[in-house]
Specification:
The chain is an alpha+beta fold. The chain is built from 12 helices and 18 strands. It has an 8-stranded antiparallel β-sheet, with no helix packed on it. Helix 3 runs parallel beside helix 7. The protein starts with 8 loop residues before the first strand and ends with a strand.
Length: 382
């Protein structure tokens, strides 16, 4: 492996310089990853990518182990012959590693498995707060107690903060100039970093050295501390994820919190979700689950009831609207597995871009998104 070695597992989008092709071949990327015994770090832009990688291993480990044993890539049927030949030139049959992995995987994936695959693994770096919280929760079912850092809080324009632990970020005072706009009064004058109030939520105005002037980000942050005029904050949700109806405003953070609570109470594993206000003035969530038992209508009905009840406990305005009848009970509809990944890949194809340039769909705010997710429904609340 002189020309290809892992000092860490980098779930990026280039292997051997074959960008556009390797994007289509998750099997080969993960095969090379699990073949290495001494991986110490997993690095990805978002926890979405890491969760998808572990899902790929879970669904394809038998073929991967066969390929590792034989030094081939026969298990990845969609690789062009030229690329397959090049990739196989980096492989050597490794019966011992194949058998090690078979022993690990045959024990199942019900308990964290990452440290069993890579005994030296001690750090995961990937953004996983706000819209990506659902993927972080899923990732930890695979990674368990392995330390996780969200790394840097950044956007295309600048670095904004660095995580200091527990999903909290410290504002970076060197890369850009940030102003804070109170979320409860968007018309208020922006305040400087040293004047924010602990406990309040803000959107950010960004001014950069390259000339970007007072650019408003869609993210909403919550201030947790202020030390020497430098705030510490968490990323809560994006403004575009907020839904409004009948005088009620629900943030993406509130909706996920309620949905997570409902699923946890009924012992269901949530994979992904999107939501909208339906024509009948009810909040409808289109959700993916791991458990096939959810084809039982009763479980979907119970989830809907638990979700609605959780929303009422989180939002006084929602509870009032439900009591007054201006909003109907929230409901859950089950959609086909990997619907969000399919939507992402369709958008990638249309826009010719990398996967992590496509953000997960939360608020369904266009007819195209509405049609897509409604057509993926396999079990509805009744």
């Amino acid at each position: 492996h002189s020309s290809f070695s892992f000092q860490g597992l980098f779930l990026s989008y280039q292997i051997f310089g074959c960008l556009s092709t390797v994007l289509l071949v998750y099997h080969s990327r993960m095969l090379f990853a699990i073949k290495e015994r001494d991986v110490e770090q997993i690095i990805s832009p978002f926890t979405w990518g890491i969760t998808e990688a572990f899902d790929c291993i879970r669904n394809n480990w038998r073929r991967m182990c066969d390929d590792i044993e034989q030094g081939t890539l026969r298990g990845a049927s969609d690789i062009p012959d030229e690329l397959r030949t090049k990739l196989e030139s980096y492989l050597r049959p490794d019966v011992q590693r194949a058998n090690e992995l078979r022993t690990v995987f045959s024990e199942g994936f019900d308990k964290p498995i990452a440290k069993k695959i890579w005994k030296k693994l001690d750090l995961i770096i990937a953004a996983g707060t706000g819209s990506f919280a659902v993927y972080t929760d899923r990732m930890k079912k695979y990674t368990g107690s392995v330390k996780h850092s969200s790394g840097y809080y950044l956007c295309s324009e600048s670095v904004i903060g660095k995580e200091i632990g527990n999903g909290l970020y410290k504002l970076d005072m060197t890369s850009c100039f940030v102003e804070f706009v109170p979320i409860d009064d968007p018309s208020a004058e922006p305040v400087f970093a040293g004047s924010v109030e602990v406990g309040k939520e803000y959107t950010l105005l960004l001014t950069t050295f390259s000339g970007l002037y007072r650019y408003r980000l869609d993210d909403v942050v919550k201030i947790h501390d202020l030390v020497d005029y430098i705030p510490t904050f968490s990323i809560e949700y994006r403004l575009c994820e907020t839904v409004c109806d009948s005088g009620v405003k629900l943030s993406g953070a509130q909706i996920y919190s309620a949905l997570h609570k409902a699923c946890e109470g009924l012992h269901q594993s949530l994979c992904d979700y999107a939501y909208m206000i339906s024509e009948d003035h009810s909040l409808t969530v289109y959700a993916e689950f791991e458990n096939d038992r959810l084809t039982d209508d009763k479980i979907i009905n119970d989830l809907s009831d638990a979700f609605d009840e959780a929303l009422r406990s989180l939002s006084e305005s929602y509870d009032s609207a439900r009591n007054e009848g201006t909003l109907k009970a929230a409901k859950v509809e089950m959609i086909e597995e990997e619907s969000h990944l399919l939507f992402r890949d369709i958008e990638r194809y249309r826009n010719q871009t990398a996967p992590d340039q496509i953000k997960p769909v939360r608020c369904i705010d266009t007819p195209k998104k509405e049609k897509f997710f409604k057509n993926r429904v396999i079990c509805s609340e009744r």
